[in-house]
């Protein structure tokens, strides 16, 4: 059990609730191929998952100043062009429903832009379960704490009453900067060793383990 005071549970999306890491990697590599840019490695793309797209491009394609044409191609590949499946992790919906039924406020803080977040919320059928969501084009991107600060302000919760659940160091660093505890998940983009450097309260191997820790 993390804390009996926990009211607000904030989830990252990609790699935490949705198994989309493979699709992000494939779509980004295809984008680079089609635009004749240097093709980033799998590890390079996994390393930027969670950041907003502008920051992703700066790290993956530092030689490019104008990112609009990359965004257009990448969004096409991710939404329509790439066939890699990106289902919810097994147990995600039931876990969220369990936490909700126990009185927790549920939120999402993601590196996706609002357009992309709304699409996956609708497609996954999870939109109604969240009390609040925030995207990277509505605040400073991770690991800046603004997204978490806004969520806590809207829900009138303190850092001690909140917790961040995410699969990347960007999620956990964001929580630390907001004064909020965190839980890492081992099945997303960043390795357990990377997550441990951020000193989360716990690292779980299955989203359903939250039911025992945040009841």
From TrEMBL:
GO annotation, cellular component aspect? cytosol
Has UniProt tagged this entry with the keyword Hydrolase? yes
Which Pfam families does the entry mention? HAD_2 (PF13419)
GO molecular-function term, one example from the UniProt record:
phosphoglycolate phosphatase activity
Recorded hits in InterPro entries, A to Z, give:
HAD-like_hydrolase_sf, HAD-like_sf, HAD-SF_hydro_IA, HAD-SF_hydro_IIIA, HAD_2, HAD_sf, PGP-like_dom2
The answer to whether keyword Hydrolase applies is: yes
GO BP, one example?
DNA repair
Q: Which UniProt keywords apply?
A: Hydrolase
Under which name does UniProt file this protein? HAD family hydrolase
Classification from the root reads: Bacteria, Pseudomonadati, Pseudomonadota, Gammaproteobacteria, Kangiellales
